[in-house]
Amino acid sequence: MAKRFSALVALAVGALLTTSCGGGGGTTSAGTGGGGDAITMGFSQVGAESGWRTANTKSVQDSAKNAGITLKFSDAQQKQENQIKAIRSFIQQKVDVIAFSPVVESGWDTVLMEAKNAKIPVILTDRAVDSKDTSLYKTFLGSDFVEEGKKAGQWLVQEYKDSKDPVNIVELQGTTGSAPANDRKAGFAEVIGADPKFKIVASQTGDFTRAKGKEVMEAFLKSTPDIDVLYAHNDDMGLGAIEAIEGAGKVPGKDIKIITVDAVKDGMQALADGKINFIVECSPLLGPQLMDLAKKVVKGEQVPARVVTEETTFTQEQAKQVLSSRQY
Amino acid sequence: MRRLLWPLLALAALLLLNVAFTDGFLSIQIKDGHLYGSLIDILRFGAPLILVSLGMTLVIATGGIDLSVGSVVAISGALACLQISEDASVFTAVALALGLCLALGAWNGFLVAGIGIQPIIATLILMVAGRGLAQLITDGQIITVNSPAYKLIGGGYWLTLPFGILVVAAIWAVTAFLTRRLALGLVIEAVGGNPVASRLAGIDARRVTVMAYTACALCAGIAGLMISSNVSSADGNNAGLWIELDAILAVVIGGTSLTGGRFSLTGTVLGALIIQTLTTTIYSIGVPPETTLLFKALVVTTVCLLQSPAFRAKVFHRRPRPAPKAAAEEKVKVTA
């Protein structure tokens, strides 16, 4: 009896899980995209794991509507198999173009080959795949994380250009081994490496979270008494570190200068309040650029193999001006 | 008491390692009217883990395991922060969050004791689904709150000590009283040792099991409040991620057997402190992030090996204490 009931529960849970993945498919019967008609795009999103990602989803959905493109949206809930299923269903529905943010880098060759054989162009957004065959996709639209690290480094070099004293930097890295963490670290190190007065005295991972950012910063403050600058790979770790710095009786933004990457709302608020000194934007709002590329690709025009998202940087004054208009 | 010798030595060794590497590691100052220093940090950041581990000890003592504590941590913080951001009073928010955690714990207990699903599977359901529930509550965003009263729970100070560690001390004292001064501890060990025999002896094994899971979820819920309060925000994706593994590890280091039965609350607290000290050590002596996990694994393996009588006998060429006699001694102590 007990066994039968447990099987039933397992079945019910399984059913719940599968039904929640199918959302968005088969809602539109029109617009299979004959010559010159409205374009249909199949878009497979990673999931909804952060505020950044939610803003990314909203940007794609809104700009599809504005551009008159019919969007078939599918949420992969961070699972590659869901994403492969979604792409296969897009191929069966004969959409005009497929766009997706790969959950992981590898294992895409088979399903992308199926799309290629069905003559459906593919655009990668936000994240890349490591496939050797670059003919499998038309273009990759996303941020350049190395460039973000460089921008952070350039601001620092500019800020301390008149100073001869050594500058002690602590770094809060993102999740160990992730592309943004590796690249933001490398870009930053490359720029500041030109001048020996810049010294990274401690560098640890804060897993991109506030809680870890605070915990690691607390330890840094005790083990390295003389810290001039904090470079955090995202806003959240920086926000956690700010609390640690305040707890140590120092003033964030003055006693310790802070540079972060992302420019989410809470980060921009801290920047406007003077607690962060400089933020390099990593914009999720790539919808308009994606729709432009989609239109070009469907028409058969040539597009560059790598398109970088339009991004900027913010100082404290700029943050005060744009704060009210931030979407995420 | 001899069981606690090796965890104690491990903790002392870790602290010594820090003293060697970091100047003024043991120094404690008064800053802004509260104590400030690395040791205080270890207590403050260790508080949630100690709490979760205490709850986990009770569940493991009944012969079960609770994988869902990480998700409960996330749910509790998420619900409390959502309530506060919608202008509910801190008291209401905390009460609602802990109420939900009690219900979740009872659900786990029902699945295990009522329906008879294996604990690892039963709590796996909430581990997976609970993370989703937390994301549902926060709408996938990080909820930031600005409430000094809520901030007190995990980030504030009372009588110069971190408030969180006072909460932990109180819960530890209550749990120790209930399980060591009253018969409850003996009942739990009986259920963990042999559920059938304890039922035949007249113990309501199901009720004891449900109580253990509920207490565990309550502990996790309070830990969740501390974690979210410490950074004044709720992160449904990352709060309490993998804390269940650290908690199980703390229980094992503390000398409680995963097969159920005999348990040690003091050992668990020591185990959790070892894990937190290890984390702090990694940050302050500057172990590169790429090798952090390896370093942790080496230390934990060493501690576990040192605790094994068989291993010690082999290495130090001493005969292990006769096991059955030792167990008998323990039993006598418990009933006393």
From TrEMBL, chain A:
Gene3D superfamilies xref list: 3.40.50.2300
CDD domains (alphabetical): PBP1_galactofuranose_YtfQ-like
Organism in which the protein naturally occurs: [Actinomadura] parvosata subsp. kistnae
Keyword Signal attributed: yes
Annotated InterPro entries: Peripla_BP_I, SBP_2_dom
Localization per Swiss-Prot or TrEMBL: Cell envelope
Signal peptide: 1-22
Name this protein carries in UniProt: LacI family transcriptional regulator
Lineage summary: Bacteria, Bacillati, Actinomycetota, Actinomycetes, Streptosporangiales
GO molecular function: carbohydrate binding
Positions of the Periplasmic binding protein domain: 43-302
Highest taxon in the source lineage: Bacteria
SUPFAM superfamilies membership: Periplasmic binding protein-like I
Entry keywords, A to Z: Signal
From TrEMBL, chain B:
Entry keyword annotation includes Signal: no
Domain of life according to the entry: Bacteria
Compartmental location: Cell membrane
Keywords: Cell membrane, Membrane, Transmembrane, Transmembrane helix
GO CC list: plasma membrane
Topological relation to the membrane, as annotated: Multi-pass membrane protein
InterPro entries, per database record: ABC_transp_permease
Residues passing through the membrane, by range: 38-60, 91-113, 120-137, 157-178, 208-227, 239-258, 265-287
GO molecular function, one term: transmembrane transporter activity
Name used for this protein in its record: Sugar ABC transporter permease
